[in-house]
Structure formats: C-alpha cells, structure tokens
Amino acid sequence: MKRWTAFSAVLLLLAAALVLTERRKAEAPVGPGAILHLIADTQRELSRLPVRFTRLSDEEETRFGDELAESYANWGPVSVLEAEEDARAVEAYVRQVGERLAVRARRKLLYRFHYIPDLALVNAFALPGGHVFVGAGLIPLMDSEDQLAAVLAHEIKHIDLYHCAERVQLEAGLRKLRLGVPGQLVALPVRVFQAGYSKAQELEADREGTRLAVRASYSPAGALRMFETFNRFYAPEASRAKTPQEELSKVALETLEGYFRSHPPPPERIAQIQKMIADEHWENLSEKSLAVGDMLWTERARRALEAKRYEQAVGLARRSLEVAPGRSKAFRILGQAQFMLADFSASAAAYRQYLEAVPRDVVAARQYADALAALRRPQESAREFQDWMDRQTVSEGLQVELAGLRLLAGDEMQAQVALARLTASPERFSRGEAAGGAEGAELTGRLGWWYYRAGNYGQAAGLLIRALRERPQDEELRQQLGWSLVEQRDFEAALSRFGTFPMGCAVARWQARDRDRALEAFEAARAEPQWLNPRWVGAVYSPLVARSVQEMETERKKGPVVRLPAAARR
Questions:
Q1: How many domains does the chain have?
Q2: How many Å apart are CA 205 and CA 190, to the nearest integer?
Q3: Which stretch of 105-109, 174-178, 435-439 has the lowest confidence by average pLDDT?
Q4: pTM reported for the whole predicted model
Q5: CB of 128 within 8 A of CB of 72?
Q6: Is 23 within the bounds of a domain?
Q7: Is residue 366 within 8 Å of 453, Cβ to Cβ?
Q8: Based on the domain organization, do 179 and 297 belong to the same domain?
C-alpha cells in the first residue's frame, strides 16, 4: 500500500509540473543548448523527488557540511598571492560581506565563508549546512561590493533552499555512500558542488539571492552587472578582450566555459533580474566600491609580469592603482613592466613612488638605479638618486649604485672609493668599511656591472670573476661575466658562462662567425619580447650587443633558420 501511495504522489507531482510548464511563458532561447538544459533538468528533477520526502535535519546537514568542508580545506594551492596577508585580508572582507547577508537568510544556520586564493578558480560554490566558498579568479571580474554580495547571496540561497542538502543526498545515493558513517563523504569530489544545479534551481537562487542582497541594503545592479560580465565571455562575438577585466588567462577562460555549461545562459538570468528591478522599483539603489579589488588586480599584474606579458602587466597595475592609489606593490610591478617595455622615464617614476613607501627595499632601489641609467642622462640621474638617498634612511650598500651612476657621468672617483672599500678588509660594508662573504660578492658584482655599462670591460670582468668566487652558482653574475668576455672577444669563455642562456649564446656565436648556430639560438631568444625592442637592448647592453641583435634579426628575415643535427652543433 505504501509503495502505491508513493507512486501516486510521484505521478501527481509530474502532472502538476506538466501543467505549470504548459502555462508558463517560455523565455529560453531556441537551439541545441536549450534542449540539453531541458534533458538535464528533467533528469535532475526526477532524481530529486525521493530526497524531498526524506529531507535531512539542520543538525545532520550541518554535520555533513562540516565534514565536507574539512575534506576540502586544502583544496587547490595554499596561496598564489604574493603575500599571505593579502589573502587573509580578502578572506576577512568576503566573510564580512557574507555575514551581513547571512543574518537575513531564512534558515538560521551557522554560515561560514571561505576564500580560495587561486586565480584559476573563476567560480563560487556552497556546501550543505552553511559553508560558502569563493575563488580568487572571480573577484577581479567585479568592481563593486554589490557584485560580491550578489555572488555570495546566490550561494547562500542554494543552502537556504535545500539545494545543497538535496545534492549531497542524491550523490550519496548514487555512489552508495552511507551518510551516517563518518568519513564516507570524503568520496564526494569538490566538483559535485562546483557544478550547477537544475535550471529552475539556479534561477530560483538568482531571484531569492537578489532579494536577500537588497534586504541587506545592496543594489540589485550588482547581480545584473555580474551576469552582464559573464555574458561578455559567453557571447561568441566576445572572442577578444575589450578591457583589462576581460584579459583572463587561458585557465580562467576554461574555468568559465565549465561554469557556462553548468549554469543557465546569462541572457536568461539578466532578463529575470531586469524584470525584478522593474517590478520592485529598485532602480535607484546605488552600489558600493569593492574594498579589496586592488589586491587582486595587483596579483594579476604580477602574474602577467612573470609571464612576460608586459603591456598587460602595465594595464593591470594601473587598474589596481585606480582602485587604491597608494598600493605600493602595484608601483613596483608597474616599474618592472615599464622597464621591460623601454619606457624608462615612467619606470623610474614608478620605482620612486614605490620607494617613497618602502625605502629599505634594496632590490627595488637597484632597479630604480637601472631605470635611471637607461635614460642616458647620467648627471641628472646621479643627482636624482642622490636626492632620494639623502631623504631616506637606506642601506649603505646603495652607495655602489650611486657610484655607478656617477661612473656613467664620467666621475670615476666614487667608484674607486667603493672598490677600495669592497676590497680593503673582510669587515662589513654596511659599517662604512668593507663587505665580505656573500654580501660583499653581491656588491662587487653590482659594481662590476656598472663598469660594464660604462664601457670598461676589463675592470668589469675582473670584478665579476671575483664575485663569482664567492657565489659560483649565481646565474645573473655568470651571464654578466659572459657579456664582459664577449666584449674582450673571448667567445669560448663567454659561452661557458652563458650555459643555456639563448641570447648570450647567440651574440657570442654571431661575433665568432658561427652564423647557423647563432641564428638557431637567436630564434629561441626571441621568445623574450624585450629582445625585439632595439631601444631596450641599446639602453641595457653595449653597442656591440645591440648591433649583433639587429644584424641577426635582419638575417632572420631573409629566410627560415635551418636547424643543424645535434652532432654538428657540438
């Protein structure tokens, strides 16, 4: 009898669904995507029917959600942000916005909000019992707190409306897991909850999430603009990025493609929110700025810099500075990227801005000096660096950089004083005497490179050899010595120092008249975009190197490079 009662209930529910479907105005676009959504939704709705009759209690759901959250705690990278404090600051902000929404949820669960600092995760998902996760890749697509609130409210509603609880029951049934047995839920992969729900459930979470956000004093425009952003990626005509926000990495785009496969098409979601705004007269609610957006823009700029996408890094760093003009890390990334683009004046200005906030960053101060040297106005550059040093409490080791800039201006006296202090005794340079050990080798190497830029290649080679005795594995010192040896026409010794460094090998072989192997190495070196910029090459390296690179580029354009057999390259 009980079986017949359950079967009759199922039939009644199906009949009711059919009647509602017939009466509801169809808004879905015509096409294969709509058919796939219909099939998937039908399968999902049929599978949900049994769990609706045996719904978990709040206590059970919370216990299962906690177990799942613990198993996913170390999911993905620990952090891809440059500083852990940035990740903690973003998570605190996500938690603050989430808690403001959660107190207005219908179900009084303990909602907890987690930030996954992985820029490849362009998604958010929820677990039963109150856990909400948001990926770092999603936040840079936002420019207002209201957009973040829309995403979090949507996920809260998946919990509030029992979508997550039904999903865990359904998956446990399909995988024959016993929910009451500790450790069983570890078998559920995180993608079960990253995947979307049925179309009806997603649209319901959109509606109710928007209402929740408005009750928390957020603008529904946040949800609307979030879906409009998704739609720019979803639409076939959006194949090329139009703004820095759309300059996603390949991994992020693939993640978004997965998002689109598991969620309703953005145009339907946009239409629903637009109707709600009109019906509820929510047009005049204003949006709030996104407090942590600059951190994510800065991180994306750093990743672009590492990938040698220098123009993109400049755009992203500037975007970060628009959001937070005092973001010092963005100034450093901006300076590095502009230097590689041979925009030396802008690079020096960006480094100066950064060093005003972080004067004890010795590496950045050296890069500042390098940018000033590349301007080819040595006297002005030396005065500017001296002015900066006079106004800050800086490392005494930076006297080497000032000496180098004055060396370029024709004043070798300070360079000789620095050299004497470096070689007089094993005492510390920072005490105004001499530097020994690794620190002394580093300063000696820097002075050697300044002599290279001043055209005194013999002195440069001698100092770099001395530095390498203390730091034989330092690749930068080895390459710098290689360039000095090329100028002395000791090509075999230079090649031994360059190792597998393509452009060093290319120039050394070109000067040694080994044309074929030089062009083969040059072809590999062209993957580094700065080598294709004559202004950058000429400012950083000697006239011989600049001329060699230009000659090899001209030769390369005459025809394809023929790769030699391995035996012939020895």
A1: 4
A2: 20
A3: 435-439
A4: 0.68
A5: no
A6: no
A7: no
A8: no
